[in-house]
Amino acid sequence: MDTLRHLVDGFGVAFSPINLLIAAIGSFIGTVVGLLPGLGPINGVAILMPLAFAMKLPPEASLILLAAVYIGCEYGGRISSILLNVPGDAGAIMTALDGYPMARQGRAGVALSISAWSSFVGSLIATCGIVIFAPLLASWALSFGPAEYFALMCFAFVCVAGLLGDAPVKAGLAAVIGLAMSCVGLDSNSGVYRFTGGDVHLSDGIQFVVVVIGVFSISEILLMLEEHHSSSGLVTQTGRMLFNLREMAQTWWGTLRASVVGFVVGVLPGAGATVASAMTYSMEKRLVDTEGTFGKGDIRGVAVPEAANNSAATGSFVPMLTLGVPGSGTTAVMMGALALYNITPGPALFTQQPDLVWGLIASMFLANVILLVLNIPMVGLFTRILSIPLWLLVPGILAVSSVGVYAVHATTFDLLLMVALGLGAYLLRKQGVPMAPLILGFVLGPLMEQNLRRALSISNGDAAILVHSPIAVGLWVAAAVILVVPAALRWRASRNSACLASTN
Q1: pLDDT tens, 311-325?
Q2: Do 491 and 360 belong to one domain?
Q3: Based on the number of CB atoms within 10 Å of its own CB, is 197 exposed (0-12), middle (13-18) or buried (19 or more)?
Q4: What confidence score (pLDDT) does residue 117 get?
Q5: Which residue segment(s) compose the domain that 441 sits in?
Q6: How confident is the model at residue 454 (pLDDT cuts 50, 70, 90)?
Q7: In whole angstroms, how large is the CA radius of gyration of the chain?
């Protein structure tokens, strides 16, 4: 009853005219920021944080603004991912696998609308989860140490390897390339520069924005130019802008499963939307993709990762509010906003400043409704991007991408590196090598390395710590099952086919 009473008080805070307006403004800004490739929620929140403080907004209003921007960015990231095959942020990488093929098939409006609906469901379920399970899940997250996180990262890579059942070697190659790229730069443990070739521009490593723009945007531009002579390279537009009830029913259970899994992953500090979307996409592919349509424009392949990444993003507020531990890079920035107001997040926050916490939680419910109302009617506006001719669209994508990359360090080196990565990705894509595992390897690589080193440091180099806890053992077993079972099923199917051929 205390929880319900606090939530009602929180809605009283969220429904105040100024906070309601702030939530609407933040939702719109977040959608626009998420739409622009390379910016993402961290940049959106980081840009607005000093602005909110300079405007002397009260703490609850400032947090409502930043939370609305965060959730809005997760909504907006799908737009460029579906329409241009350029993910707005790392969490939208999986959405491009089926979203862009749907756009090429003339179903961009359906993909955009179903992704907005799935994002709404995922965020709504995760917000309800915060209200009900926050204390319990926060205590469970404390049981994850470095060894458990390393096992979780390995499990995520096994899931990535399963994204392309017909080409696991190519998927593995892409993941290894991503891991190798993540090792460039300063070693955080020893302070030694690694794989920089003596170039000072690589001392901070290869920036995510440079990689994602080069690998997706530049390579996509080259493919678009190559196919310009053929109509198959052009994306067409359809008159139907909204999904129908049959399509909603087709994606409903997958959306629910992804929302629950995404929320649990989001509660784990550092796991984030990228891991959640990859795991749920792979899980759904194995569960329901009996006809091999995932990756070819299956609407379920759009709904599932969008539900998962939005649910994970919302779930990342749990460790921030209850433990004072950032659940993602964006919530780490939001903790900086709390520090500006001399507020320390943690268990005491719920008792010392309940209006702040429950006002924030209530505003998440409102922001999700605002974003759904905002995004569904704008599907027609978004799909007009597809009617832009290639001679205008290609320079536009290149200009926006270049600005996003140049803004990182304001050096031409990043632009040259972007082009080089784009050319390499173009050649790999021509050979059928998927880019999603490469990006996931690049994103998860540092987390994997850091947690492995910490685990070995704790155990004085004894690798047995990696299988010391039941959680770690469970993750290793799950990874082994994912690797072995599909291979065994394929072997059994080929053996049965050979037996039938011999009898005939």
Answers
A1: 988 888 887 777 666
A2: no
A3: exposed
A4: 92
A5: 2-468
A6: confident
A7: 22
